[in-house]
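Quick start: read one record
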Amino acid sequence: MRSHYCGAINESHIDQEVTLCGWVHRRRDHGGVIFLDLRDREGIAQVVVDPDTEDAFAKAESVRSEFVIMIKGRIRRRPDGTINNDMPTGTVEVLGKELTILNAAATPPFQLDGYVDVGEDTRLKNRFLDLRRPEMLNKLRFRSKVTSYIRNFLDGQGFMDVETPILTRATPEGARDYLVPSRTHPGSFFALPQSPQLFKQMLMVSGVDRYYQIAKCFRDEDLRADRQPEFTQVDIECSFVDENTLMTIMEQMVREMFHDLLNVDFAPFPRIPYSEAMAKYGSDKPDLRIPLELVDVADLVAPVDFKVFAGPAKDEKGRVVALKVPGGASISRKQIDDYTKFVGIYGAKGLAWIKVNEIEKGAEGLQSPIVKFLGDDVAMQIMSRLGAQNGDIVFFGADKAKVVNEAIGALRVKVGEDLDLFTCKWAPCWVVDFPMFEEASNGGLTAIHHPFTSPACSPEELRDAPEKALSQAYDMVLNGTELGGGSIRIHDGEMQKTVFGILGIDDEEAQEKFGFLLDALKYGCPPHGGLAFGLDRLVMLMTDSQSIREVIAFPKNQSAACMLTQAPGVVDNKQLRELSINLRKPAKEES
């Protein structure tokens, strides 16, 4: 039907007859001459229809926004003074000769010809309209470029694209499973995969050697800006590699992709041990664009009578840190109160602070209600350790280490954003040397990543001191967001049994949950490792979007519902009977 895309015409087409198809983005009547901005996937072209073409002009008078039309006409240069350098097609226009209305359109529930602040649920309910907006189409186009780039890179590195099952069985991976009842096996359920973890490891046992898949994954968990119940990950696994080899390949892919798609050049990624990341930034996803660091001061405050600080300082599971913000003394008391509420979200009981007004006057030059409790000497020792200068503010966190890390780590990022302290646009890094285990709520140990991650020690060393063991795990982080994470896997039956034992998983339970993998390990499993990138998060960052919902064609809302299709929905009793399911009424209805 068409000869050109709307966004493809330019001065090289002047005097050519063209046929364009698309949606009416905007209609303007200028003293008898009608201007139509015609939009398709590739952009917008200006069409001029004058009264000399009576039939076309009459139809142009009747069209409205989002009508679907076809225009036949001649391309000409725009008159002087009307050129729009902000549009790729802004130097030319189409003099319309024939206009065909292919379809009329009802008035859209929100404007598409400019930015309008529309509620997200309204946008998601009318996603087919929302996606017509050029900025949304451009994000989908960019996502397509990213997936194509990843496929081409991995194909070139000898990786094979292999699909793994969607209907599988439940395995403990940290979140709730989405369950699918089986009609042919009454009372039994499939689980949608949280990741292809076990299957990709079995592909290594199978000799595939290098595998990848752009895979759909499913997790029934509370949502936020960078989470969805169904999401896409770039899943990668390869045999006969160590950490360094795998990390080098993945870093090369990301560096080349940013160069080729965004013209951004990265230096080699720094590798930061987990312990250092937590000590300096309070997070294993540090945003290195922000030049603020947490500094431990427990040794300085342990002797003071101020129990708020001294208590955590003397507790082996406690931590006391200071966060210096250069130039932050201008922060108002109201803003400090807001920051106090902010850290409370993470469990902090308060937020102590000291403003540095005149450091040369010693403690007298410090402004804070806590200086008198610390004592002049301790207060100045803290300032000396921090290198504090006039005009700075120092925030403190004192509590269990977990609370301090989360609260002051988040405050570090919040203050950095509020004061625009970013030193660069992009800051990638690797976080390595993760602990193998962490303390669970029941006092036992739980795997930080998953129970198939290989420890960086022997089974004997692991049994002797599991709480001190490090894992061969690694996360790639960009601007405080985890792009992807992975590890070298356990390929030895004895090591796998040792890990299960520490986690309290006995032989019977292990066989029940993971028997198919454990059986595979008996038949010559090669050393192997892998990594999975969150594709949605990656594209979100690369397009400077605020949420992964902006880069997914049909996302769920924050209640894990699809506003477009009204899913999830009820099913009729006949289907439930076929699945041997009897629904219970909600508790409040039962009562």
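The CA atoms of residues 315 and 400 lie 8 Å apart.
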